[in-house]
Amino acid sequence: MAPNFNSPKQALEQGVCGQHGWSSRYFQDPDTSRWCVEVRWGVGSSQRQVFVSDDESDAASKPGIKKGHAAAATVALEGLTEILRAANVKPSRTIDETFGPRFDATCRVLGGGHGFENGWDALWACAPSVVAVDVEGNQRTPPVLVQVCARVGADTLCVLETPSVAEGLSENLRRLLDDDAIVKVFCDGTSGADKRSLGVRSTCNVLDLEHVATELAGATGVQRGLARILNLAWPDATVRVTKDAAEKSSVKFFAAIERGTRPPLSGLHDIPPDVVRYAAMDAWCTLLAHQGLQLLARREGISIKG
Q1: Each residue's pLDDT tens digit, 192-204
Q2: What are the residue boundaries of the structural domains of the chain, listed by start?
Q3: d(C-alpha 104, C-alpha 7), whole Å
Q4: 136: which strand partners?
Q5: What would the DSSP string read from start to end of 5-72?
Q6: So what's the pLDDT on residue 114?
Q7: Considering the domain 8-88 in this protein, what is its CATH number?
């Protein structure tokens, strides 16, 4: 057990599962009364294991549950040694380091919204069946920026729209959100802030990567986030993807507009190029993660939209 943790369960939950986006489920075996924990580190039966302790503490009492969980976690920490070593041997790389060159080479970024129709014309021309949608500045309606990414053959197209508070979403964006024939993929989690800021109420053909990841690989104590979902979606990658440091500066930029300490956007030209790239790449990575999860689901005979 790592010295920074107060209990075996904390070491397992925070030091292992929380770090990698793995799921854990504690239960008492109905036949033996022994406390167990199932840990899932990927998708499929080969990517999970149940660790069984010798503890038979009373599940009807809080002390009994605490003792049972600790015993099961202790067994899991020992049993996961090799699996954890294999995960940790991969070098850590940020999303930009891992996918940036591919994004730059294959994704075309265009403006959309009022007075900027070229991006939407290009998107409608490719007749997408699946799009990834991301939002910046989601604490207001409409949000500060909306990014929509779709596949165009082997490449991708990302349309960026800067809705105004007065005019709201463009007709093209409303058309996209209202079209139940197009699957909309978000990475929004339990808060639903992105969808709420866009006024998305229908659940028809609306997917959230956090929910898909939970369906395929089990629930986690905290949201996985896009980086960990990418790791889950592409388990054979040679690196372990982590969040970009640039995310904080991007969040601060859009938060300042929300608060009114920075002027409203009149178009993409008001956004620094590196922030535009980062925002577009968020939607692009959402689409990439959906693709990987879809492949894993098909392998396991599980149906997900898109």
Answers
A1: 899 999 999 777 8
A2: 8-88, 92-299
A3: 45
A4: 145
A5: -SSHHHIIIIIIIHHHT-EEEEEE-TTT--EEEEEE-SSSGGGEEEEE-S----TTSHHHHHHHHHHH
A6: 55
A7: 3.30.160
